[in-house]
Input
Amino acid sequence: MAELLVLSRADLKRILSLEETIAAVEEGFISYAQKSARIFPVVREPIPEFHAMFGMKSGYIEKSHLLGTKIAGYWPGNRENQYEPHQAIIILLDPATGVPYFLSDGNYITQIRTAAAGSLALQHLARKDASVAAILGTGVQGQGQAAALLTTLKLIKEIRLFDPIEEAVQKIMKVITAINENVSLVHASTPEEAVRGAEVVITCTPSQQMIVKSEWIEAGTHISAFGADTKGKQELDPELFTRAKIVVDDTVQARALGDTQHAVNKGLIKIEDIHAELGEILSGKKSGRTSSDEITIFDATGLSVQDLAAAGRAFELAKKKKIGTHVEI
Output
């Protein structure tokens, strides 16, 4: 009889810190860059009846024998009931037998593994002396990126926040203040007000059209774009890609699902213009920021190796700390 370890979101929050996740996700990115991890084709399919999007991201990390999938999607109608719009679960299976041994909430892992990717990108692509940042989209992902920002760039003094949902802005302000009460917070009324003059720009929105114009971005700025993870979604002005050093999490996914799709589709850049995948930088194959006046972009679509690495770390920590529920299947 196979035994499944089940972790709730509350369980995960007790054991899986941002620091633990950053270390795990970095290993996942490096494994992928070294061809010792595989990403399987992404499923992203609309469910028109409910205006929803259903997805699956799967893969295998050979070194740690992590095989699994995240079943996830976005149901905007959930804002009207007790559920969150983003829904996800993660399943790990024994690669030798196919027997599942781990099941967990995927919402928390998605948030924290994305924050971890954001931290890794900031470490290598943002200016170390950056003091002013902008976050567009202040929901769960925005909150995670705020934590990553403050963990990674110690000289941040001001964070400008934009979101059309007032409640979301107020919530992220509380999150940021709890981390660092000395950071000045600005509730921007428009994306332009938030972005102009910021040295770091982070976007975490469900936008279907550009919300950051190239003309707002000054030399030396770093932009991390997390919102575009589906064909048609967009946050950045395609023209911006012609001015920037472009880094993606995965070239194929970025071309199909990320903001990169729009710059390529318009003929403004070619795939060859992408400087690196993040794992190549983390493994030392490619350079990160090399000058203070470079504009850098990290186009993040979210990789299955991030989910697997974070879930694998959660599984090990849960066993060590005897947390979770065991179910025979």
